[in-house]
Amino acid sequence: MAEENKRKIGLSTQIFIALIGGAVLGVLIHYFMPEGYLRDTVIINGILYVIGQGFIRLMQMLVVPLVFCSLVCGSMAIGDTKTLGKVGIKTVIFYIFTTAVAVCVALMVASVIDPGVGVNLANVETGNVSAGEATSLVDTLLNIIPKNPIGAMADGDMLPIIVFALFVGIMLAKLGSRASNVANFFSQFNDIMMEMTMSVMKAAPIGVFCLISKTFAGIGFDAFLPMLKYMGSVTLALFIQCFIVYQILLFVITRLNPMNFLKKFFPVMTFAFTTATSNSTIPLSIDTLDKKMGVSRKISSFTIPLGATVNMDGTSIMQGVAVIFIAQVYGIDLSFGNLVTVVVTATLASIGTAGVPSVGLVTLAMVLSSVGLPTEGIALIMGIDRILDMMRTAVNITGDAVCTTIVSHREKALDRAVFNKE
Q1: Three-state DSSP state, 295
Q2: pTM
Q3: How far apart are CA 123 and CA 227, in angstroms?
Q4: CA 90, CA 85: separation in Å to the nearest integer?
Q5: Which 3 state secondary structure label does DSSP give 222?
Q6: Are 88 and 305 in contact (CB under 8 A)?
């Protein structure tokens, strides 16, 4: 066991070193390597892009079968539909509550810092806005029920996959020994997917190095300067949500040591930061919560995939700050009623949002429209959104893990000895 822990710590350290090394290389490429075919085509959009995206695709390859099997096994293990319902209700209430708190934190921070005051639009790098149409609440609710479960799996549409997997797990639990062969198949296939995940994770340092290198090689620090107040506002709000709000909730409800939680979960946060996709961190989150924190897999295999789909606190923070920023840039005053509308809209917009990079920009259009702000303002923040997207993804998955730990504690499915073990 000691050797296994040593190997795990070694991988986490490698990922962190790759993160720092990749950032340094990216900055060096951006500022000291002349533009041209070698830098732009061969290195940035060739080697770094292919290896980085190749690693992301390996993780994405595992997500759907792993989530499906984990949820089937989790709901099958919980067995009792009444207990499953209790877990589900507690999880959803927690997710909605923390998302609403996140938006409030963002609005308060942005109102104090005033990120849009004094911004010269001529200095801001802009992008092309292609926000797409927002999905209504009615359609979001109906889309939860899959018309074609296989089609949902092929499209990676997580909410319908979650619903279908829960149905399958509940039916397997109800049938008992009559469906033992099918139940064993899912349990064994789930073990295979977990083992595949751990194998793919061995390549994580290389993938992380290339992803971060490409990001910094492309943007350097030039795009940041006019947007420092906006970036500072988002970063501060994310910090408050991640290291204060979540940790207070964890301590008050479970009496667990927040520092212990952060230390053990930090490698997952680092991985989420580099990949900027909640879905890709699902396997690592479940494994870390199980082995390092004593959280029952039957709980985490339900709450973590659900959180990657409906719990986007980091994204909601970006949207809250962006609303204040864009309103100030365009000289539009927002009333208290407008701010309440932002809280409600941003909370609802996070439900059903895909756990993929920069999806928050798509739902931001819906939030801006709700208070009459120009959606063209999205173009102002697109230039530096990649870095902020990485930070908010780390916050998103931390919220999922805190919720999972709390629900596991409430359901008496948390091994405190494992959590407290150094």
Answers
A1: strand
A2: 0.77
A3: 9
A4: 9
A5: coil
A6: no
Q: Are 213 and 29 in contact (CB under 8 A)?
A: yes
Question: Count of H helices and E strands in the chain?
Answer: 19, 0
Q: What's the token pair of residue 65?
A: 């079968």
Closest Cα to residue 373, out of 341, 347, 411? 341
Q: In this structure, which amino acid lies at residue 64?
A: V
Q: Please list the rounded mean pLDDT of every run of 10 residues in the chain (422 residues).
A: 50 78 88 87 90 84 80 74 78 90 94 81 50 56 82 80 84 85 89 82 85 79 72 94 96 94 91 80 87 88 82 89 89 87 81 55 77 80 77 92 94 90 80
What sign does the dihedral 78-92-89-255 (CA atoms) show? positive
Taking residue 372's Cβ as centre, other Cβ atoms within 10 Å add up to: 11
Question: What is the number of other CB atoms lying within 10 angstroms of the CB of residue 405?
Answer: 27
Distances (CA, A) of 417 to 2, 104, 201, 292: 16, 36, 27, 10
Q: Hey, how many other C-beta atoms are within 10 angstroms of the C-beta on 319? A: 30
What are the Cα distances from residue 360, in Å, to 108, 324, 385?
A: 20, 16, 10
Q: How far apart are CA 20 and CA 22, in angstroms?
A: 5
3-state SS class at 414: strand
Query: d(Cα 169, Cα 78) in Å, to the nearest integer?
Result: 9
Question: In this structure, what are the phi and psi dihedrals at residue 120, rounded to the nearest 5 degrees?
Answer: -90, 110
The backbone torsions φ and ψ at residue 144, rounded to the nearest 5 degrees and listed phi first, read: -65, -30
Give how far Cα 224 sits from Cα of 220, 231, 234, 383, Å: 8, 8, 13, 8
Contact predicate 370/103, CB 8 Å? no
Residue 19 near residue 208 (C-beta atoms within 8 A): yes
Short-list 269, 260, 246, 261, CA closest to 393: 269
